[in-house]
Design goal:
2 helices; alpha+beta; 4 strands; 21% strand; four-stranded antiparallel β-sheet
């Protein structure tokens, strides 16, 4: 069972992630053939299960991290095509810019940072549960 404030925090983050998934699908969804086992974008109850992109977040204690605890954000391109590293990095950079743009809307008056942390994207900073 999760604390109510934690559930509220993660619900806001989930909604931000959904917004980013929609953004990526609109901008890049036609650039790749979606995996044949996945329905078109918007056809399931969870955007992480349809379309070309699956954007998720998971809490990390930050062991071995440069930035400590926070949320690791994973952007998967779900296709059987080979996606070169340059394209993948450009999409992740664009997604990070979108997240930074949306953070003040979802988490106003909080000092949150978004950086690469090794091979993941990490959201860290003021993760306090007060005033959710």
């Amino acid at each position: 069972m999760k604390h109510h404030s934690l559930s509220q925090w993660e619900k806001k983050l989930y909604n931000l992630i959904i917004n980013v998934d929609h953004y990526l699908e609109e901008k890049y969804g036609n650039d790749f053939r979606r995996h044949p086992a996945r329905p078109p974008h918007g056809q399931t109850s969870s955007v992480s299960h349809d379309g070309v992109f699956s954007v998720t977040s998971n809490f990390s204690l930050g062991l071995g991290s440069q930035h400590g605890r926070g949320y690791a954000i994973d952007i998967k391109i779900v296709t059987l095509e080979t996606v070169d590293q340059e394209t993948r990095e450009a999409i992740e950079k664009d997604a990070m810019e979108k997240i930074r743009e949306l953070l003040p809307d979802y988490f106003p008056n909080r000092e949150l940072n978004l950086q690469r942390d090794g091979n993941v994207i990490k959201l860290y900073g003021d993760l306090s549960l007060g005033n959710i």
